[in-house]
Amino acid sequence: MIKFLSCYICILLFATATTAQVPASDAGKAPVPAPGATVLHTGTQLVVVDVVARDKDGHPIHGLKVEDFVLSEDKAPQPIRNFEEHTADTAVEPAAPLPAQPPGVFTNYTPVPANGVLNVLLLDTLNTPTKDQAYARTQLQQFIKKAVPGTRIAIFGLTTRLYFLQGFTSDPAVLKDVVDHKLNARASVLLADPTGNNSDSTSATAAATSDGLQPGTLLTTLTNFEAEQQAFQTRMRMEYTLDAFNVLGHYLNAFPGRKNVIWFSGSFPLDIVPDPTIPDPFAVMTAELEDEYHQTTNLLARSEVAVYPVDARGLMSDPSIDPAHSGAGYTTNPRKFSTDMGSFFDSQAQEHATMMAIASDTGGEASFNTNDLATAVSKAISSGSNFYTLTYSPSNHNEHGEYRSIKVQLSPAANAKGITLSYRQGYFADDLGESKKNAETATVKGATAADRPTYSYASAAMSRGAPMPSDIIFRARVLPASTTAESELAPDNQPNPKASFKGPYRRYDIDISAPGDNFAFMVQHNGTRTGEIAFLAYVFDSDGKQLNAIGKSVQLHQNPEEHKKFIESKVGYHLEVSAPANGESYIRIGVHDLTTNTFGVVEVPTSSVIHLPPPVYPSRK
Predict the structure, then answer these.
(1) Which of 152, 427, 560, 615 makes a 20 to 30 Å CA pair with 8?
(2) 50, 413, 415, 416, 486 from 421: Cα distances, Å
(3) What contacts 195, CB < 8 A, 6 or more positions away?
(4) In this structure, how many other beta carbons lie within 10 angstroms of the beta carbon of residue 120?
(5) For the segment 154-165, what is each residue's pLDDT rounded down to a tens digit?
(6) Of the residues 340, 366, 383, which one is the last residue of a structural domain?
(7) What's 594's domain CATH number?
(8) For residues 245 and 237, what is the distance between their CA atoms, to the nearest angstrom?
(9) What CATH number is attached to the domain comprising 256?
(10) Which of 527, 306, 533, 295 is closest to 428 using CA atoms?
(11) At 28, is the pLDDT very low, low, confident or very high (cuts 50, 70, 90)?
(12) Are residues 379 and 447 in the same domain?
């Protein structure tokens, strides 16, 4: 049975709160708009462009005025509506500290200053050989020792998904501890050479050649098999990397101001060309990946995220002439040596071009062909901390998904030889109309929640150890339902059949409360607002395996008066979930707005609440 919080519980979680009582449905079906529903937009769309200006020596240029900039979109001049200069030495207003929470109460709200710049260090183990990961870690240790005091940094890791390692802090001792003990090298399961030793001993073609197999049908089949396998692995790396940046963009969107992501990676070959060495040269080229890339870069732009890719491999040499390379395949096929050499240079050029592309698309800068990675990080943070923010309202109001180019120049009076400007080069106009938090959304006739793609963001947001999104701010009180273990699961729980999740269990009461104005709605032609909210609780073991889950959905149909009361109140919800009675486990609690596919998430270790007393609820009428 679905239960809703009483006003008493909401007042416990939110001072002066009232609870919105809404009808619930277990079916999980989104409301279908009435015939004739139209696309509605609220507010004036603004495009935000951060511009980094540097002299010929790479030093930031300060003191430019709004009249010094000339901005255009698709060659059409655009008036600059707002203008601000940001410098690294700007005094940062401290954020108000989060009040002490009652025992068992958790929130995904993170207090950060309203001004200043945030920096993210992302160590990519998916696309980086282990030896280069180790070198990058050493260089990060050097950077932390010399980091400018007050620099706010968060640290993430990337394997087949994004891992949250450290939230934003300027404490060098905390950052040093994370780099020393949490950034462990991991072998990528999708790299052809995961160690980075340039060894081809695992190549089936090389093994067959060393056994005396002459060129022919079998050798050709082996060669094609390896090429197709590598193409598949490349595609998977692309998908996982895009998913990670999508999750990171959603997470960073909740923080104000500019965010610089310094991305240590071995490669990200997004701009794949047809491979003539395999039977289907276009096997890895899909429109879906291109679309996701465009959506991800637009998300990063909306979140004011600039990506600074750093090639963790440093200076590289052709692996075909490396002593670790056996060269066995060249004895019977001399042309292979020149082919491999050409392939190396083509691949390197493509990877660097891709890094420059994502940097250009987000307003960052790529760094490669250097072994001084610590300095590369310092330069990226310095560059991303001294910039100008320009905003404009596009003169073209027709939003049909087309790409629009942005060009920023200095006026003739301000221009000087050697000055370079870095900024994002454009955007796709369909994303400007996307609904955001606290904004009403619209739909077209016949649309439902199933028609709005969730990609992998939903599963990624609820994964153990992932960043905790705060698109939706909420609090959750988590307390054990009783002081004793149980032999049965809580009602409506769905254990993972592959996890062998067996009793005894400990049941937990979860009371969720969120401000009503966190949620978005579809606006019907008659003024009715419709939406859907899901409340989730997943249980994981210490290894990240999901053990149990429960999810409930609420469908909303509100007239204007009901909608006004809803957004002025707090939405309360109650869940019960069972976790192992013994050993450490983690409860990941999510609030999902299905209208906009936005999330709020908190993760609670059971060890922090298992010894607390059970909740006392007032009698429900």
Answers:
(1) 560
(2) 10, 16, 11, 12, 64
(3) 129, 130, 131, 187
(4) 22
(5) 999 999 889 999
(6) 383
(7) 2.60.40.10
(8) 12
(9) 3.40.50.410
(10) 295
(11) very low
(12) no
pLDDT band at 72; cut points 50, 70, 90? very high
Instruction: Quote the CA–CA distance of 384 and 169 in Å, as a whole number.
Output: 17
pTM, to two decimals: 0.76
Measured between alpha carbons, how far is 47 from 427 in angstroms, rounded to an integer? 9
Give the type of residue at 445: K
Q: Return the half-sphere exposure (C-beta side, CA atoms, 13 A cut-off) of residue 75.
A: 0
Does 71 fall in a domain?
no
- Quote the CA–CA distance of 564 and 265 in Å, as a whole number: 48
Last residue of a domain, one of 383, 400, 419: 383
pLDDT tens for each residue of 190-208: 787 777 665 554 455 555 4
The one-character DSSP state at 452 is: S
DSSP structural state of residue 426? E
Q: Where are the beta strands (DSSP E) in 117-218?
A: 118-124, 152-158, 162-169
* Helix/strand number for the chain, H first, E second: 10, 23
pLDDT band of 487, cuts 50, 70, 90: very high
437 located within any domain: no
For residue range 51-62, list pLDDT tens digits in order. 999 998 888 999
- 158 and 30 together in one domain: no
Dist CA 559 CA 100 (whole Å) = 38
How many residues are listed for the chain in this entry?
621
- Which two structure tokens, joined as six digits, stand for 392? 């404009």
Beta pairing, strands 118-124 & 152-158: parallel
Alpha-carbon distance 468 to 449, whole Å? 23
Across-strand partners of 338?
none
**Largest pairwise CA distance in the chain:** 85
Query: Is residue 250 domain-shared with residue 372, that is, in the same domain?
Result: yes
Q: Does residue 361 sit in the same domain as residue 448? A: no
pLDDT tens string 278-326:
555 545 545 667 777 777 888 888 889 999 999 988 765 545 445 444 5
Other Cβ atoms less than 10 A from the Cβ of 173: the count is 8
All residues at 6 or more sequence positions from 126 whose CB lies less than 8 Å from its CB, including other chains: 158, 159, 160, 188, 190, 237, 240, 241, 244
pLDDT at 398: 83
Q: Which two tokens stand for residue 288?
A: 């879906």
The residue segments making up the domain with residue 306 are: 118-210+218-383
Rounded Cα distance, 154 and 212, in Å = 53
> What total number of domains does the chain contain?
2
The angle at the Cα of 150, spanning 145 to 152, to the nearest 5 degrees, equals 90
Closest CA to 262 of 246, 248, 282, 283: 248
